[in-house]
Amino acid sequence: MLTPTITHVIFDMDGLLLDSERIYTLLNGKILERYGKIFDWPLQAKLMGKRTIESAQIIVKESGLTGILSPEAFLEEREIMLQMLLPTCTLLPGAERLVKHFHANGISMCVATATCTDHFLLKTQNHSRIFAMMHHVVKGDDPEVKQGKPAPDIFLAALRRFEGHVEASKCLVFEDAPYGVAAAKEAGMSVVMVPDPKLDASCHERADQVISSLLKFSPQNWELPPFED
């Protein structure tokens, strides 16, 4: 393929930089278990990249709990447990190395995440050094993000906040979710996908590159400065 000139990088966060997805999976399962329901992989896959209230609506509907449990009540119950567990998020393999590498080589970066501001602060409180290397962060509750992924709103908002006029075609997005990949492509950007291994290969089709881990990313394949080690 012809490699576009990349000048800026946009990272998703959950399941890409941070291992937060395991916490949501655990808590969603605990709540549904009380209603005799199972939080399985097909349901989890439908939530990837979705904003908080959208995820809750999908969980309630797909689990057959409409009229029994409201999305708002689901979130209220889960929130108590999230406050305790989200600060335990750890960086996923390769995340710190890649962010530090781009920062050291003057590649401007940002984060575009569906998570809300309160949860972002909890998840990142022990990783402030890494997230301080980002030029900016756009979150799911940002006023400019009218629609969640797969709409391109969040990536277009992220693009506008870089310094100067930056063309979408010069942005490389790192995503783990099909909705996120679709949103980035709709925004006119290139995408490296790092999917969950359980995700069906048909969900990889729109990505420009698919890798199993950020550790597998080779910057030189995108004409970016190579790792020194």
The CATH class of the largest domain, by name, is Alpha Beta
SS class: alpha/beta
**Mind telling me the C-alpha Rg?**
17 Å
In the sheet with the most strands, the strands line up as 3-2-1-4-5-6
Strand content: 5-15%
**Largest pleated sheet:** 6 strands, parallel
Topology:
Blueprint: E1 8-11, H1 21-33, H2 41-47, H3 52-62, H4 71-85, H5 95-104, E2 108-112, H6 117-124, H7 128-131, E3 136-138, H8 153-160, E4 171-175, H9 178-186, E5 190-193, E6 209-210
Parallel strand pairs: 1-2, 1-4, 2-3, 4-5, 5-6
Enzyme class: hydrolase
Organism: Rhynchospora breviuscula
InterPro entries: Gpp1/Gpp2-like (IPR045228), HAD-like_sf (IPR036412), HAD-SF_hydro_IA (IPR006439), HAD_sf (IPR023214), PGP-like_dom2 (IPR023198)
Account of the 3D structure:
By secondary structure, the protein is an alpha/beta fold. The chain has two domains: 8-19 and 91-222, HAD superfamily/HAD-like (Rossmann fold); 21-88, Orthogonal Bundle (DNA polymerase, domain 1). It is 37% helix and 10% strand. The protein has helices spanning 21-33, 41-47, 52-62, 71-85, 95-104, 117-124, 128-131, 153-160, 178-186; strands at residues 8-11, 108-112, 136-138, 171-175, 190-193, 209-210. A six-stranded parallel β-sheet has the order 3-2-1-4-5-6, sandwiched between helices. β4 (171-175), α9 and β5 (190-193) form a beta-alpha-beta unit. The longest helix is centred in the middle third of the chain and has 15 residues, at 71-85. The model has no long low-confidence stretch (mean pLDDT 94).
